[in-house]
């Protein structure tokens, strides 16, 4: 009886139902759309999938024209998410990110007229996935409020009264041009405190500049016959993508992190600090990212692989746990 009860419990768990419904690949609709429209960029695709499942944010640094924005747009459409894109600039105003400012005039009780400024919700306040292009160019005033919205997913302003508006935002993808010394893009690096809001961070480059000629040939083939870069997807396909994401989210909540994995994560961090000299002066090693958010990403990777718990990467030796850092950064921990 106990065995039968355990089997029934497993059969009705979110992970088991997810595996039965999507027995080949989780989020296969989104993955298929990404592979059809974007050649290469495996790390970027994986980062976006992990972020969607874990409901975290992504930062992608790379030169213009390497499909950073297309990656986000394609994922949003395939997953059936509402989408907001904004190109940051030095004069970005807050209302351009959160919605239009509306002037409301009404009679004052004691005579005269009251003038109030309200916000008509839009932009990041109403989107499920947003792309913040060239985020490092945003002025500090807008950037500070933006990062608070990304972190808290709620908005308190003059228009909300005493209430908080809960944002439907699932994932934000921020992009930036390279900020290396001597870069031709004249881009300032994003402040470390700002970067820490983006759990998944990666660099991207183009097929031509990186000398990936097989990949470049495939891109030429893809666009050689005038195909649209954004093919039409029917309503049923979009519904399937949304259903996949909903089930993946439920599965993510059910994934467990066994004690050996938690112990190994702590050991990795100890090795980085004590053996390799990582500290707050030379690295961004925050409790929020490595003790809280990292676990969400690990669980998202388990969902992508159809597992019920986070398992260790067997190809690395336990004798040197810092080898796991590369595995975690690539989402395979």
UniProtKB/TrEMBL annotation:
<dbReference type="InterPro" id="IPR003593">
    <property type="entry name" value="AAA+_ATPase"/>
</dbReference>
<dbReference type="InterPro" id="IPR011704">
    <property type="entry name" value="ATPase_dyneun-rel_AAA"/>
</dbReference>
<dbReference type="Pfam" id="PF07728">
    <property type="entry name" value="AAA_5"/>
</dbReference>
<dbReference type="InterPro" id="IPR050764">
    <property type="entry name" value="CbbQ/NirQ/NorQ/GpvN"/>
</dbReference>
<protein>
    <submittedName>
        <fullName>AAA+ ATPase domain-containing protein</fullName>
    </submittedName>
</protein>
<feature type="domain" description="AAA+ ATPase">
    <location>
        <begin position="54"/>
        <end position="206"/>
    </location>
</feature>
<dbReference type="GO" id="GO:0005524">
    <property type="term" value="F:ATP binding"/>
</dbReference>
<dbReference type="GO" id="GO:0016887">
    <property type="term" value="F:ATP hydrolysis activity"/>
</dbReference>
<dbReference type="InterPro" id="IPR027417">
    <property type="entry name" value="P-loop_NTPase"/>
</dbReference>
């Amino acid at each position: 009886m106990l065995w039968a009860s355990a089997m029934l419990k497993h059969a009705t768990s979110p992970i088991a139902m997810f595996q039965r419904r999507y027995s080949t690949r989780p989020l296969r609709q989104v993955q298929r759309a990404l592979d059809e429209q974007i050649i290469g960029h495996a790390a970027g695709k994986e980062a976006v999938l992990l972020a969607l499942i874990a409901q975290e944010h992504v930062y992608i640094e790379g030169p213009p024209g390497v499909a950073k924005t297309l990656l986000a747009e394609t994922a949003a459409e395939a997953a059936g998410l509402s989408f907001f894109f904004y190109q940051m600039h030095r004069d970005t105003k807050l209302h351009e990110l959160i919605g239009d400012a509306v002037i409301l005039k009404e009679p004052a009780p004691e005579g005269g007229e009251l003038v109030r400024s309200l916000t008509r919700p839009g932009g990041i306040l109403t989107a499920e996935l947003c792309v913040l292009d060239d985020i490092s160019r945003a002025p500090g005033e807008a950037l500070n409020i933006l990062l608070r919205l990304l972190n808290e997913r709620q908005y308190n302003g003059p228009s909300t009264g005493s209430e908080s508006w809960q944002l439907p935002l699932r994932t934000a993808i921020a992009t930036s041009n390279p900020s290396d010394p001597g870069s031709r893009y004249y881009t300032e690096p994003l402040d470390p405190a700002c970067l820490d809001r983006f759990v998944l961070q990666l660099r991207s480059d183009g097929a031509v500049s990186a000398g990936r000629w097989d990949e470049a040939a495939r891109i030429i083939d893809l666009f050689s016959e005038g195909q649209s870069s954004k093919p039409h997807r029917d309503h049923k396909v979009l519904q399937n993508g949304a259903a996949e994401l909903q089930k993946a989210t439920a599965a993510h909540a059910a994934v467990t992190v066994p004690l050996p994995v938690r112990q190994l994560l702590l050991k990795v961090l100890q090795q980085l600090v004590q053996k390799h000299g990582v500290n707050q002066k030379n690295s961004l090693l925050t409790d929020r990212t490595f003790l809280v958010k990292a676990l969400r990403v690990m669980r998202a990777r388990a969902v992508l692989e159809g597992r019920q718990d986070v398992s260790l990467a067997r190809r690395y030796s336990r004798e040197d746990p810092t080898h796991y850092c590369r595995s975690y950064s690539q989402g395979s921990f």
